[in-house]
Amino acid sequence: MCRHDSAFSDAVAGLNTLELCAEGNTLVHRLHPLVKMAVTTIYVAVVISFGRYEIAALLPYFFYPAILIPLSETPGKILLRRLLPALPFSLFGGLSNVFFDHTPMILLEGFVISGGVVSFISIMIKTVLSVSAILLLVSTTDMAVLSRQLAAMGVPGVLVLQLTLTYRYLAVLVDETGTMFSSYMLRSPETRGVRMRDMGTFIGVLLLRSIGRAERVYDAMKCRGFNGVYPASSTCRPTASDLLCLFIVCGIIILPRCLL
Amino acid sequence: MHMADALLSPAVSAVMTAASIGSIAYSVAKLKKEDESGLSLAGHGESKIPVMGVMGAFVFAAQMINFTIPATGSSGHIGGGILLAAMLGPYAALLTISAVLIIQCLFFADGGLMALGCNIFNMGVYACFVAYPFIFKPMVKRCLSAGRITAASIVSVVVGLQIGALSVVLETMLSGVTELPFSTFVLLMQPIHLAIGVGEGIITAAVLCFVLQMRPDLLDFADHSGTAQRERRGALSFGRTLLVLLALAALIGGGLSLYASAYPDGLEWSMEKTAGTTELERTGSAYETAAMIQERTAFMPDYDFKSAGEDGSTFGTTTAGIVGGAMTLLLACAAGAIVAVFKRHGGKNVSA
């Protein structure tokens, strides 16, 4: 019960902490969202474009999170905790290389390190770098700002609205699920989780409650003049300094890839 | 089944992103058309969009409830593709799943940014555009009964997950980052997702049957004109459902093992094969001047000690690699520390 309860509270806390971080007012926070989105995408694309046995060339890319974390005043502990869910799939793929790739790669005083170990380290470095970049983006940019920017970039309004509403309802529904789960576990203390035979009713009730809530919210939205279209508030254009920053940072990111 | 960036090549990522963007654009266009013709969410009319938003959050919340699998010590959770399609229709369901996957990627590091296209395709497109319209809907078309919904849910979830899992294997193999042989990967992925699919299918069926009893107007596949035939006749029995599943398992397991073979890695050394060399010659005064500066300042030229001969030494090369790596990381940390110190001093000045 405690394990599940902590999962629910962790999810809500995770959302809240990142949202609180995004409310900061540092140099990174003030950058135009388009610049941050473009830099993050280019950074991740460049990082994953390196070869499977590449380790040394990836190391300079640690400068990006190392500089951005203090610059944006993002707590490293939060980023580290958010990093963990990303590791299992990469760990699985990377470990398989250790078992299947025995190509001798590095000789260290007679000790041979296989290509599998090298590629495993490379995969894990890529994972840490790419996930850090994404987390730094959302910890320095508010979700509403990101959504507005997506709409300004031509992403269909229905998808942007979907994204915004899902994000907004997330904490509410996770909280409600936690309450329902606690009630269930108090009634059935001997079980480890929701029994299979109760899952249909449990999730069904959650579903109907969610839809009921959506209908009430929608009625309230209509009362306030909502007509099904996401209000496209004007997004300011990137300034000259924003663009300069974009070109410099992108240049710094791309240059080592071309040289190494 | 969320794929990570580190196991994908940019080429595979770009192709799958394009495919997913195409599917999303198609769904948006279809939704717009439905909206214009007044065919909105089953029984909901214009309130489709807020319900979609809540359904996205609902799937996210429902995924946090693990169910215990009887007679085993393991547990699983629902994926939600077929459940969403059955509630919202395939087009709205794809947009909802896409929003869930984008939020999972951004805020929970579950699946990568470059892998987003793959994840939307593997977990959304197959469930909404293949399993739901071609398996689920035809199976419940004739009559709405608990048995039929159960059979349709299990078969469509299993098929959707099997195709999705196979896609994960193919995308990973085509990326050429992992050495895992195709046959081993397939034999690991498919049976696991068969078990997960059966569990998810049963829960999806239970939820849909519950909604059918309580609010049938919410279901996409139900006949809202009131002429739905809720008859028990013709409903698939549990035994027949099991037979269908067994046949499916045999087909997937047997069929795939026939084609399973070690997939060749063709991407990694493509430059060497096409150009004949992995290093490109650079000439010109700028390059020569830069090379001279580099030679004078380099701590370990050519990843070796300065005193090493023409052939270099393995020990020197290895040490150079480790020292260079450590120096890079130290420099990165130092850069971060300097920024933090400056920020602290700057903050103090401002507050003073």
Task: Provide an overview of this structure.
The complex is a heterodimer of chains A (260) and B (352). Chain A is mainly α. Chain A folds into two domains: 1-19 and 154-229, no CATH class; 24-141 and 234-259, no CATH class. Chain A has helices at residues 2-22, 27-30, 33-48, 63-72, 76-83, 87-100, 115-140, 143-152, 157-187, 196-223, 240-259, and strands at 104-108, 111-114. Chain A has a two-stranded antiparallel ribbon. In chain A, strand 1 (104-108) and strand 2 (111-114) form a beta hairpin. The longest helix of chain A has 31 residues, at 157-187. Chain A is flat and about 70 Å long. The relative contact order of chain A is 0.14. The mean pLDDT of chain A is 82. Chain B has 352 residues and is an all-alpha fold. Chain B has two domains: 5-259, Arp2/3 complex 21 kDa subunit ARPC3; 281-351, no CATH class. Helices cover 67% and strands 1% of the residues of chain B. Chain B has helices spanning 10-36, 48-62, 81-88, 90-108, 116-141, 146-175, 182-214, 238-259, 270-275, 285-297, 314-351, and strands spanning 67-68, 75-76. Chain B starts with 9 loop residues before the first helix and ends with a helix. In chain B, 43% of the residues are buried. Classes of the chains: A mainly alpha (260), B mainly alpha (352). Chains A and B meet through helix 1, helix 3, helix 4, helix 6 and strand 1 of A and helix 1, helix 2, strand 1, helix 4 and helix 7 of B.
